[in-house]
Amino acid sequence: LTPLLPHIDHRNRGMRTRLGCLSHKSDSYNDFTAILPDKPNRALKRLSTEEATRWADSFDVLLSHKYGLAAFRAFLKTEFSEENLEFWLACEDFKKTRSTAKLASKAQRIFEEFIDVQAPREVNIDFQTRELTRRNMQEPSLSCFDQAQGKVHSLMEKDSYPRFLRSKIYTDLLSQTQRRLS
Q1: Are 123 and 152 in contact (CB under 8 A)?
Q2: 107 burial via Cβ count (<10 Å: 0-12, 13-18, 19+)
Q3: In a 3-state reduction of DSSP, which class is residue 1?
Q4: What are the alphabetically sorted keywords of the record (predicted)?
Q5: pLDDT tens digits for 113-132?
Q6: Which of 29, 64, 129, 137 could staple 125 via S-S, CB 3.0–4.6 A?
């Protein structure tokens, strides 16, 4: 019985830590600065109000901007749905694969992590798309995830992106960039 106690205690501590992290999650500007690609203050000095405002022009403008991507990722973390963005980014990286030797293993990793039923970071796609992607895995190509990636992109664009634009993370960020000008 005694050898089990440290194991149980360790799991309880881990659970407390995870629950503590959940209780601290918030949709705020500070959460965004914690994951900026550069040092937060330097990054914010480089980010202009005009750039941050352009993120509202289109979802693709947001995704193509380093800090826009970081802010959107921070927002998705508050909603516990960052796997969508991570899958989309993994697909973008996968499309740049030039080595045919690496293609199949990279495809398998992406499939197992995001597409397969019960994947650790399973994305929300319909059965037909999942099955088409599974068939594409028989002969992986640079386009084997195109349909699934398109569905996830569309889901983020129609669902998460409008909420991001209304979020405290985005509005606080805009306020910060505007305050610098005054």
Answers
A1: yes
A2: buried
A3: coil
A4: Cell membrane, Cell projection, Membrane, Nucleus, Signal transduction inhibitor
A5: 999 999 999 999 999 999 99
A6: 129
